[in-house]
Structure formats: structure tokens, C-alpha cells
Write the C-alpha cells for this entry.
Amino acid sequence: MSSNKNDMMGISFVDLSGNTEDTSNMPVGVSNRFEDEEFKEMTRKRLMGQQAASAPKEESSTVENAEEARETAAKTDKILTDITGSTGTYAILPLDSLAPTPEAWNQFSTISNEKKVLMADSIYRNGLQQPIVVRALDEEGTSYQILAGNTRKSIYNVLYELTGDEKYLSIECKVYAFGQLTDDQAREIASDTNYVQRANLTSRDKSFAVRTKLTILKKRGEKQILEKAAEQMGMKRTAAFSWNKMASLIPPLFDMYDEGKLSLKAATRIAGWSQEVQEELYMESEHFTNEIIMAIPAKTPSEMVLEKFHEIYNESQKEQEEARKIGSIESIDENEDGYTIHLSGKAPEASQLVVMYLPNQKVTAFRKQYQDYIIEPSN
């Protein structure tokens, strides 16, 4: 395949373990991953015109947008040609003969309901823009496995349920006959097509893509695989290194990264520890700061990470407490001209000492607002 970093066709994102998989007994049906009652209701309202004014304005990014659909179709065709040559035929197949892609082959995030609604609307009004890709699971051609198009298949199910139109009981497919593809080729098609058909990849998607790309290059016996993966995927070597490490991150910590609660460096540091340690750290995520995580040496043994975390966290708490100590009123001496006040401690940075008389009705609110700056009498 091509190694041009701007040519997304040249990217493979699969973990080619070399193990042969027996697909003869794979169940045929709809994966629960693609069933969603909210999506059905949103689609119903969209098709009935009740959401025309307030529909999500994502036409520029949805896969079924006309221009992008053509571009995506061209990319998909090139992927299939690169992997399988000129093999495969086209056919209309019944939905109930199609099995979903195995979960292990498809670790990309699910598509949002808003985007699926736009896809459903486009298919309903304009027809299917791109056939799905399947391979036969038996010599008789009675059951098939989806390699690209699980969401489109699920949309057809919903459209039939909402409209009763029997044309949605079958779908156009690019079909590979039984035994025409190796399991590795099928898995490669599933991963590559999934990647190019997504307008926005999540951090987990990127990590999965980089990790599997490096796996492929390593299996092929390539040298300098990190540099080659970075070049082919259009990113810096350091970014490829970080995304590869982050592939070991547990999902809740990926969410924290996506929400901006963890920096890339901190997330990468955590990903280097065992999943058990990550899960224990996540239980204390309310105490997370990037500084605390980065203060834990990367090569800390897993069994010592929690101990080191607590040590650093406790030290930081003590430092914060010390920083908040602004002293106390040691004594107040009344004299003819007023008062002499004796204070201990130093004022916080960027603050000024002010002596005030507060009306009784204002004291509670003032104390609540400025508690950290109020100097109390010593005990």
C-alpha cells in the first residue's frame, strides 16, 4: 500500500495476529451495538418533518452528504482494490442474512445518533449512496458477515420498521464469496473502511489505529516502524508514540482525557501502568491533577504506583494548607487613640491588609466569600 501521508487509502489499522479464525458458526443477526430506541424516535420525527427546523446541522460532516459520500466511496473502492484486487461482485441481499462485524475487529467508537439520523434521512430521500461490504460465511451463500456498513444496515432495519416499505428488507452489497478472503483480509477491510468513513475520530479511535498500524509494520518485518507509521498517518513521531501508549488506557481515563481533565502527557504516563492500577487510580480521580501524575516516575513498579500517588497527593495537600495559613490575631490592645493589633503570619501574595467594620447582616456573606483571607483570633 501507499505510504503517502496524505493518502488515507494507504493506511491499514488491523492487528494481524496470524491466527486463523473459524467463522463457520458465527451467529447471524443484528448486534446490540447498533440498536437504539432514541435513534428510532429521532428518525421517526425527522422523516415526518417534525424536526426540519431544529435538525442537527452536521450536513458538512456526515458520511451520507452527497459530496463526501462520493469521496468516501472512492476511498473505500481503493481500499478494497488494494486488499483484494478486482475480486468481489455486487448483489442485493436480505437483511436477515447479514451478521455484524465481530466486536474484536471494530473497536472504533459508535456514531452519534444525530449523525445517524442525517444518514437515515439521506438514505430515505436519496437512496443508498454506497453499498455495504460483506463476505459469505458458507459455500451456499445463505449467511454473510458485514465488513463495512453495520450502521447502514441498522438504518435499513429502522426505515422498514417506520415506513413498512419492503425495499428496506434488503440492501445492496459488495460481496466476497466463501473462501475468497482470508480472515486477515476481512479484518483489514473492516478496519480500514471504518477509519476512512469517519469525519471525526475520537482519541480512542486514534490510539487503536496507531497501535494496530504499528502491529502490522512489526509483523511485516519493517524497520523504524514508529517513523513509518507517523509518516503514513500524517502525524509527528512523538504523537504516534503517545497514541500508541494510550491504546492501553482504560475507557474511563480516555473520557477524562477527552474532557480535558488529563493532559496528553499525563494520560500517556498512566497508560504505562497496569489496568488494575489504572482502575484504582480512577477511583481517586477527583484528586487527579496533571502535576501529581507527572510527579510519579514513569518507571515506578505497578505495585508501588498507588503508594507513590498517595504520598505525592498528601504532600501537595500539606503544601496547600501551609499556603493558606495567613496567620492569626495574637492580641488587640485598646488605647486612647484606637487599637494596636498584633498579627502572626504573612499576607497572601497579591493582597493587601485591610481592617474593616462590617454590618452584622453582611458578616455571614462576607465570611463565606472571603474565608481564606480572613484573619481570625488565635485560640
Q: What stands out?
A: Residues 1-30, 50-64 have pLDDT under 50 and may be disordered. The beta strands are 89-94, 98-99, 132-136, 144-148, 170-176, 329-335, 338-343. The chain has 14 helices and seven strands. The CA atoms of residues 318 and 324 lie 10 Å apart.
